Amino acid sequence: MSGRVLVVDDVATNRLLLRAKLSSAYYDVVVAEDGPKALDLARSEQPDMVMLDVMMPGMDGFAVCARLKADPETAHIPVIMVTALDTAEERIRGLEAGADDFLSKPFNDLALFARVRSLMRMKMMFDELRLRDLTSRELGLAEVMPDQDIEAEPSGPILIAPPDAGRGGQLAAELGARLSIGTIVTSSEREALNLSRLELPDCFIVHQTLMEGGDGLRLVSALRARPETRQSAVILVVENGDVGTAAKGLDLGASDYIEAPFDVNELIARIRSQLRRKRYSDRLRSNVRNGLKLAVIDPLTGIYNRRYASQHMIRVMERARETGGVFAVMMIDLDKFKSINDRFGHDAGDAVLREFSRRLQENIRGVDLVARFGGEEFFVAMPDVDAGAAGHAAERIRRAIEDAPVRLPGGAGEVDVTVSIGVAVAGAGDGDAEAIIKRADSALYLSKEGGRNRVSFFARAA
User: Fold this and answer.
1) The whole model's pTM is what?
2) What interhelical angle do 165-179 and 264-296 show, nearest 10?
3) Is residue 162 domain-shared with residue 229, that is, in the same domain?
4) Based on the domain organization, do 381 and 273 belong to the same domain?
5) Same domain assignment for residues 277 and 304
6) Would you please indicate which residues are annotated as catalytic (active-site) residues?
7) Same structural domain for residues 239 and 273?
8) Which residues of 304-337 are buried (b: 16+ CB within 10 A; e: fewer)?
9) 43: Cβ–Cβ under 8 A, 6 or more apart, which residues?
């Protein structure tokens, strides 16, 4: 995973040190020596993350962070505040200014890179949601999303998975009194998973060691794997500065972590920050989903149609132009689909299309876009993907369809289904969206001519 990081520090040695560390992990680094320049660079460069020193002359890090979060052009950029004064008071002040996390000097490389990876994933997710929201608004399907009432929106309960009943009960009482949000205390890992389905918490507080021999990291992983809890905030509690466990938790999908023993005020500030982020992402998803249902959602399969995909391709190409990256598109056709309709009827054909759409979505990334172009023809757009990754994804999709027959409605039995796939990889300068889609369509023709149930790539003329 790569991205652009803006490093802000008034001390040249500190800037050089962070630049060297981040560059060694293949991040693109931009530097600023003071707050005003940082604000200008954040607007012009649109970095994926800002690493911001707290103690700077003139405008300190807290003021810069507050300005970044107040500006609609930069409010979505994650901010890590860097300080030599690692106190709960400093962290709370930064979180209240909008910071996403704190790192203390000297840096622990494990904590640094785990936090950067985690926030980069979050930024990628928000970028994709904002991209889809922009596409919807340009199509006239949604209005600009108001932000003023986001703090007032109701929250689901907070589920606490503690190391023992005493600490769980005490924490629940403190959080309930201070946040006016319902709390649930669980007695085991299994109970936490079961209650998460019933209560739909917006936030989980998970200790690294759970009662009845439970494993906090395993619970974090399970929560992220389940659709009903995938978007919830998860804060991992680690003991005595266990950076290794914290880093592993972030890589498994924890939204944040806090070291025990902790100041409950800091935990509350972190919960508020995570809930604010979740409400924003929920609102983006809702805005996109509600605006698109009638106009650009295929009613049979529930995925996007060609109208939306064509507009979205423009955004994908714009992002490729900004990053200098490449992207891939696939055209997918169900082999001999007409024979299924002729043999089993159109209800069976509809069932096959719905099941194919489900498997297709299960075998792509969250940032990829799936659309039905019509009949049995489907489309996938994959940003930031080269030929090798696109080929692996296409083969994964092909096998997912071939390996299991589709059960037909009304007890009509099962039918084997295969697909032919055409892939084209392009950059922003490789023609317009329709030309790139036509290349993938040409590759699809090669797959069908070559015997079906295969993947072909568009080959440029020599």
Assistant:
1) 0.63
2) 70
3) yes
4) no
5) no
6) 376
7) yes
8) bbbebbbbbbebbbebbeebeebbbbbbbbbbeb
9) 71, 73, 74
- State whether 185 and 273 are in the same domain: yes
Give the tens place of pLDDT for each residue, 294-342. 678 888 999 999 988 998 999 899 888 888 889 999 999 999 999 999 9
pLDDT tens-digit readout, 42-99: 999 999 999 999 999 999 999 999 999 999 899 999 999 998 877 888 889 999 999 9
In this structure, what CATH number is given to the domain that contains residue 187?
Answer: 3.40.50.2300
Residues 399 and 277 grouped into a single domain? no
Question: Are 433 and 410 in a shared domain?
Answer: yes
Give the total number of structural domains in the chain: 3
The answer to whether residues 64 and 33 touch, using CB atoms and an 8 Å cutoff, is no
The closest of 442, 401, 405, 440 to 424, measured between CA atoms, is 440
Phi-psi region at 285: left, alpha or beta (left = phi > 0; alpha = psi -120 to 50) = alpha
Domain match, 268 and 408 both: no
Phi (first) and psi of residue 363, to 5 degrees? -115, 20
Q: Which domain holds residue 302?
A: 297-457
